[in-house]
Structures are given as structure tokens and as C-alpha cells.
Amino acid sequence: MTRPTTAACLLALSALFTPHTVFAAGRAEAGFPMADPLLDDPAKLNSFTTDARNSKRDGEVIRLSPDASRLALEWTIDPAADQGLFQSLLRSYRSEVGFWPGKRSEMPPAPTAVLTDEERSRPHQPLSLDLILAAWKTEYARRFAAHVAAGGPVKRFTAVAMQSPMERASEGVAVRTIENLASGKKVTCSPGSIHPEFANDGKITNAEFWECDAKDAWWQVDLGKAMEISTLTIIPLHKDDRAYRFIVKTSMDGSNWTVHIDRHDNKETFGTRGCEEKFQNTPMRHIRIEMFGNTLNEGNHLVELIAR
Ligand SMILES: [Ca+2]
Q: Over the range 48-67, which residues count as b (16 or more CB within 10 Å of their CB) and which as e?
């Protein structure tokens, strides 16, 4: 296959045609090596044309006189250039030396990369980001399996859904401040929690929430003394159509609990208003929410628990 000179190629090379380059060479002719990304091993230079007064090819180098303002190249792509790329990527990953805390001179030799029959026989594919990703995932899966086989711990992480910059900005400013008897009161929560203080700071914003991806996640607030409460509102993260599953219990002594809200099998999204439960004035000191993930993933995200 023969490709005509591309605009990109001309652009890259024309960058070298500066007075500085020419005069620094201190010769009547300016020489430069062929740009690596353009004509590395996969491509073979066939011919070139230029408006330079003098020009000559010297192996993989083209020498032009300083008056040159245009260079056009014609090259052939080597169809076998991408052969074995996937295998080559895997070998690179597998011959890495991990972090070595000791002296460089005492660093162990790089491990010998071993490929399975299946990996070796994977058909040829041209270089692409997908191919690199496929190799990376293959190697990650192998290391993960080895880690688990060696009895290594496994922790599951659930990423919060990605937001556009516009969403982040709008959510950052859309802060609603509300009256909350639980505001700023002492909070305890399950291990693995992030920002438990956000769930009773009196602010409603999707940008801030208590987060815990652990199974049996719980968050609990101590009002400090028994208070008469008639409304409990749970505002989970309000995002896409996910519905959070939870129950809310209250207690006077922190030992004996009464279930006030049971949304263990919830499939409802509540929007920014949250799930509100009204009842007769009831004395309570401790309020506890237990969350069981949502319809999208196992994450638990509580924007606010409001007691009034
Ligand atoms: Ca909050």
C-alpha cells in the first residue's frame, strides 16, 4: 500500500525548517533524522520531492539545503509491522520488575515473560488503544488471579458515576440549607466510611455525601438527649434513576431499636426532596440508617438525614 504525503507529515517536518536549526548546523546543508513516529520500522521511504536547491538521501536521513520550504514524502507501510503486537505488549508487562526498595545494584533480574498458548495464538490486530487495553486487562486478570490464589485480600471498589464539568459546577452551587435537629450531632458509622459528617451538616447538595461501599453499611447519629421528632427524611444521592435500599431505626438507649422506615426493597427514586416519613411526635435519641446499595451498584451515598 502506498500512501501519499499527509498534511500532518508536512506539518511535523516543517517545524524543523527554522533559521535556528539551519544556522546551528553551521553547514550549507541542514540534515535531520527522519522523524521517528512518522517513518519508524512500519514504514519504508520510497521517494521524496522538495523545493530545496540541493537535496540528497542518506539512508534514513534526508539532507536539504537551508532554502527548503517544502518536503513531500512517499512511503510504504509494512503490513507485517503490527504482527505480534498483543504478545509483545504482554511480554513487556510480564518482564517488569516491581517496586524495589533496596539498592539498584541488588535489584533482581527482570522476570522471564511467559505466554499461554491461547495468548500466543491470538490473531494479529493492528495497533490501537483497544489493543493496548486488551493486553493490559489480560495482564491485570492474570495478576489478580495470582494474588487471590496466594491468599491475598480482595476489596471491591465502586466508583461514583462520572459527571460532566457542567454537572459538577451546577451541583456545587445548588446547596440548600435546611433545619435539622441532627445537624452537627455526634456520628458513628461502619468501617470504610468516607465523609460521615456530610450526612448531617444541614446542607443538601449532591456534591457532598456520606459514602460507604461496605456490605452492611450503617450511619448513626446521637442527638445528645431524647428529642421529640415527628419527621424523618432520608436524602440519598440523587443521580440518574438509581434507587437506594435502606432502613431507618431509632432508639432511646442505643440498644433497643424500632424500625421507622423500611425501604429494604426500595425501587423508588426520591429526587432532591428525599424520602420523608411523618409520624406522631416520638421521643428518640439515636437515629440509625442501614443501607444496602442501590439499583445501579453496591455503593451507599447519603446526602442528608433530617430529623424534625
Ligand atoms: Ca449534607
A: eebebeebeeeeeebbbbbe
Q: Which residue among 77, 96, 114 closes a domain? A: 77
Q: How far is the CA of 226 from the centre of ligand 1 (A)?
A: 22
Residue 213 lies in a domain: yes
- Asked if residue 30 has pLDDT above 50, the reply is no
User: Which residues, listed in sequence order, are joined to residue 301 by a DSSP beta bridge?
Assistant: 211
- Distance of CA 251 from the midpoint of ligand 1 (Å): 22
Beta bridge partners of 47: 74
For residue 210, give the nearest of 160, 175, 163, 247 by alpha carbon: 160
Which residue range forms the structural domain that includes residue 71? 2-77
Per-residue pLDDT at 11 exceeds 70:
no
Same domain, 179 and 292: yes
Total number of domains constituting the chain: 2
Last residue of a domain, one of 46, 61, 77: 77
Secondary structure (H, E, C), 169-194: HHHHHCCEECCCCCCCCEEEECCCCE
Q: How far away, in angstroms, is 81 Cα from ligand 1 center?
A: 56
* Residue owning grid cell 446521637: 222
pTM: 0.47
Q: Are residues 182 and 299 in the same domain?
A: yes
Between the CA of residue 289 and those of 23, 211, 265, 295, what are the distances in Å? 74, 12, 14, 18
Confidence (pLDDT) at 109:
87
- Report how far apart, in Å, the C-alpha atoms of 120 and of each of 83, 124, 220, 290 are: 12, 10, 54, 49
Q: Phi, psi (5° rounding) for residue 72?
A: -115, 135
Ligand 1: distance of its center to the CA of 302 in Å? 8
